Amino acid sequence: MREMKRLRIRLNRTQEEVVQGLADLAARLCVEGKIKKRPSFSTRQYKKWENDEPPPWPHADARKVLAAYWKRPLEELGLRPRDHGEPTNPSPPVFTRVPLLTQDQAPDVAAPPWLAQTPAGATSSVEWRIGAAEVDVLRHAADDMDAQDQQFGGNRLWAPTQALLLWVHRMIDHGIYDDELEQQLHVVKGKYTTSLGWFCYDAGLHVEARQYFSEALNAAMTTGDDVLASRTLSNMARQAVDLKGKGREAVRCARLAQAHAKEWQAPSRVIALLAIREAQGYARVGDEFNCEATIRRAWKEWERGPDERDPDWSTFLNEAEMACLEGMCRLDLGQGARAQKLLARSEALQDVAHSRNRGMCLGRLSVAALRNGDIEHSVAATTESLRLIGSGMSSARTIEQLKIVHDGLAPHHKSRGVRDLLEQIRANVA
Fold first, then answer.
1. What is the pLDDT of residue 87?
2. Is residue 54 reached through a cis peptide bond, with omega within 30 degrees of 0 on the bond before it?
3. Beta carbons within 10 angstroms of residue 321's beta carbon
4. What is the pTM of this model?
């Protein structure tokens, strides 16, 4: 039984009563400015949400009303965007709500000094007056964290980001702000949560990453934030590629991300990113036909060029990164020569601002060269990857690639430079 129907029966309400309740709530939310346009509801429509398989996907304002009425994310109610390309089980399996930051876990400490404080009468507590400047500080800090991740990796970022996310939660729970700032705070919370999931993933903390991605996705569904849903599902697809036996999950996440992207008419570079994520999933399960078609679609979208609406989380997708991601697909498909060529091209195009991505590319290039019997180029790429690690780039994913390279180079320990390189790798991955 779908959750929406179970909740209605538990409350002993008829479908007609629920529809009237939704209409009343929609009218109130529209007056309060929390939805742009008052949606209409009918008993016939509601029956489809309860009984159809798959159920129709509500419009954006209707989604907000449904989530507010039942106090549940739409995913928990059994509603999700239709994915016409994959008729069975189109949703990723990780939608468990995870209470990562609870009041009991949060220490009762004073507000940070940059928040205005207003005495709360006779009580000993302090109310926090939140303004636009405070939200801007957090938004810019989140952007800085993402930029540092691109250059240095997420190993050193997840802990401070977790602390900042805690402050955002406390500001939402205890702050004083108007409706416009409330919306901005929830957007910032979603940004930190999905970024934290990514940083945990890059640091090799896969369980924590999946928890934060799930929390971010639940927040996106509750607030009707299709942009956050697209970004989070893209991150989930990328992580699934690296997890054993999760290639199909990567495809499902990428396809669902594309369904959300259609809701906000995402620009071409976002569509290209989601398509190449889908291709990586196909490559991981050895589906060469679908992988080839999706790679072509990704490049076609990418070649449409940048757009002023491109979100900051998609701007990393330059030519170097596209070549690297395709090279990774080719490597997973066993196309060693094509993979090495693409990865070498990517490495040559990478810039300083994307050192972490360059390190990932070098690791894959080392593996591709090894598989092609090109020991010299494998050694050269590995040496450069170690240099990046020595200069401050820290990514558990790069370290994992070095372990693979080490095992591949070990049988060639008599080749020039290999023995010393193996010692350097062991010193860095110990």
1. 41
2. yes
3. 21
4. 0.70
